[in-house]
Every structure is written in structure tokens, then in C-alpha cells.
Amino acid sequence: MEIRNSDRPRGPVVIDIENITKDYVMGEEVVRALRGVTLQIRRNEYIAIMGPSGSGKSTLMNMLGCLDTPTSGRYEFNGKNVAEMDDDELAAVRNREIGFVFQTFNLLPRATSLRNVELPLIYAGIESERREERATQVLADVGLGDRIHHKPNELSGGQRQRVAIARALVNNPSIILADEPTGNLDSRTGQEIMALLEDLYSRGNTIILVTHERDIAAHARRTVHLRDGIIESDEVGVMPAMESMAAS
Ligand SMILES: Nc1ncnc2c1ncn2[C@@H]1O[C@H](COP(=O)(O)OP(=O)(O)O)[C@@H](O)[C@H]1O
Ligand SMILES: [Mg+2]
Predict the structure, then answer these.
(1) 180 pocket-lining for ligand 1 (C-beta < 6 Å)
(2) Whose CA is nearest to atom 18 of ligand 1?
(3) CATH number of 44-66+93-247
(4) What residues form DSSP beta bridges with 224?
(5) What is the pLDDT of residues 87-101, one digit of tens each?
(6) Model pTM?
């Protein structure tokens, strides 16, 4: 693994989790999805969270995004204990600090690109003229200026994911949490989405990318491997995608 000085993160710690566990209780059975994860992520890092299916990646992402609460352990977001945040503070983190991108896009099927991207601005209480202006701008930024009145089923997979990325960006979050964002895309379209994430990273955003694909993780500057709910390795540096693929 190549380590370049320019790749070393220097920003303040934004995500600080210590010994996080997550149990899912299903009747008699308990699934121990996370079994003690400790992780610090600094501002403007580009980190890939890798691991086989079922290793706890999505569970960890849901914790990081304050979409779910851990069974035990400590989580500080921007220096503040998440367990002590009230509903308004949690909503503010989820709506303003973090932009979520999912494998299945999670767009409203009957709504146009514009309406889908406007949605977080409605929650943020922005009035309609400002909303439309801002959503139109962000859609243009992701290369969809000519698709604002299309509905999801009138768009290609890559275009749908770009709408989802525009929606994630519309409130100007500093952190992008992307769970398998290229999982439903062909490899060329996937690379287009990765170029978009690279651009966001170069503009100062923090990118947290969940993937089980090496060539997708190779875009990140740091790679954390999960296995059976624990961190198996945590390495800084750009992963040489082609070599590691050829070696495996
Ligand atoms: N809502 C849930 N209820 C019960 N078990 C779950 C739930 N979500 C995930 N799991 C289990 O937790 C483990 C980790 O799942 P997940 O975080 O989705 O893994 P990954 O994203 O790496 O595929 C798996 O064994 C999965 O079956
Ligand atoms: Mg998953």
C-alpha cells in the first residue's frame, strides 16, 4: 500500500466512535452485527469501509449517520455525544451535516428530479422559490440540468443515482455517507459516480464510502476492513486497484 504525505488527513476529528456494539434481537436469537468498533474520522477524509456481505457495513453506516442507535459504546459527532442529543439536534445532524446516498437510490418514484432534490429543503423549512432555485442548481452541478422534470423511471440508473447525490448535497452537508452507491450500476456508470464523489472530496467534503468492491474502494485514501462486526484492518493510502485485483 502506497502512503503519500499529501494523503494524510489533517482536519479535526468529526466522527469519534469507541467500542460500538449493535445487537439485533429477533425473538430468541440475537445477531451481534457490531462487536466493538472503534474509529475516528477527520474532516476531509475519503474513507472506504469494506467487508463481505453481512460483516456489519450497513449497520455501521446507520450508526455513523445517526439513523440508528448502538447497543453500547460511545459516539461523538463534532465533539458532541450523540446519545445526549435531543430529537431536534439529531434531525439537524441528519439533515444538514450528512448527505446520504444508497445503493437503491431511494427516490420518490412519482416525483420529478426537481421535487426529489427539493425534499430535504422542505424539511429544512426553506420557502419554495429558494428551494426550486437551489435544487435546479445542484442538479445542474451533477450534470442533470436537462433532466429536472424527468421522473425516476424516465432516467437511467446512473442518472437516478446522480439525482440521489444531488438530493444528498442540496443542504450543503460536509459529510457524504454512501452505502454501496455503485452496487446497482454497470461499471462504466459506477466510475462516473465515483468521479462525482472524487470531485466532492477535492472540494473539501468528507466521504465515507461503504463497498465490497475493491476497484470502488480504490478511490478512497483510507480503507477499513470489517469482518464479523469488528475492524480487521485500517490502512491509510490509495489502494492500487489493478494490482490488488490481479493478486486476488
Ligand atoms: N434490521 C436487522 N434485524 C436483524 N438483523 C439484522 C438487521 N440488519 C442487519 N442484520 C444482520 O446483521 C448482520 C450485519 O448486517 P449488515 O450491517 O447489513 O451487513 P453488510 O452491510 O456488511 O452486508 C447480518 O448478519 C445481518 O443479517
Ligand atoms: Mg450492506
Answers:
(1) no
(2) 58
(3) 3.40.50.300
(4) 49, 234
(5) 999 999 998 899 999
(6) 0.89
